Amino acid sequence: MTLPSPESFPVVLEQVVFSRITVEAINGFQVNPSREGPLRVPIAPVNSFSLNPAQEGDRSIIYAICQVTFNASKDPQAPYFFEIECYAKFLVRDGVSEDQAKGAATITGHSVTYGAIREALAWMTGRLPYGPFLLGLSILRPATEPQNEPPEQEG
Question: Is 33 in contact with 56 (CB distance < 8 Å)?
Fold first, then answer.
């Protein structure tokens, strides 16, 4: 398989930053010492993703924003509460249509920001009392499409 040249892609990733990271271990969570395999919890994360086109001087840019919240009620059936927000900043290449730029920023922005959140969360919870929490996949769907209940998360 031949990969396309990065110079032919409609947007250029310039920066990835976290604007909010809150992670708390939940008092009262009970780890079953006899369990085998990954921990399964009955609470699903709430994921959101959006684009924010902007101008920076004469350059068009697009911010991709991913937010993940888990266990906002701090239910002791799950080991952690977390709320994380990550931004990716993309420069739009000259001559690229708005639709092309938004399409590229959506797919790449989601992959980059959600992946960064997954990695940061696993690293941070790996140093907390209940061990690493691993987020499952996040699948992009149109906002108007009904959402089915996602599978239980592993922690």
Answer: no
Contacts of 146 (CB under 8 A, 6+ apart): none
Determine the 3-state secondary structure of 79 from DSSP: coil
| CA 73 to each of CA 8, 102, 107, 148: distance values in angstroms, whole numbers, following the listed order | 45, 34, 31, 21
* Cα 94 to Cα 54, 72, 142, 147, distances in angstroms: 15, 42, 27, 36
Render pLDDT for 101-149 as a digit per residue (tens, 0 to 9): 999 999 999 999 999 999 999 999 999 999 999 998 888 777 665 455 5
Q: Which of 11, 12, 1 is nearest to 97 (CA)?
A: 11
CA distance 18 to 66: 10
Question: 64-89, pLDDT tens digit by residue?
Answer: 999 999 999 999 999 999 999 999 99
DSSP H stretches of helix in the chain:
98-125
The CA distance from 77 to 42, in Å, is 7
Name the token pair of 35. 């369990």
How far is the C-alpha of 53 from the C-alpha of 89, rounded, in Å?
Answer: 10
Say how far apart CA 60 and CA 92 lie, in whole Å: 5
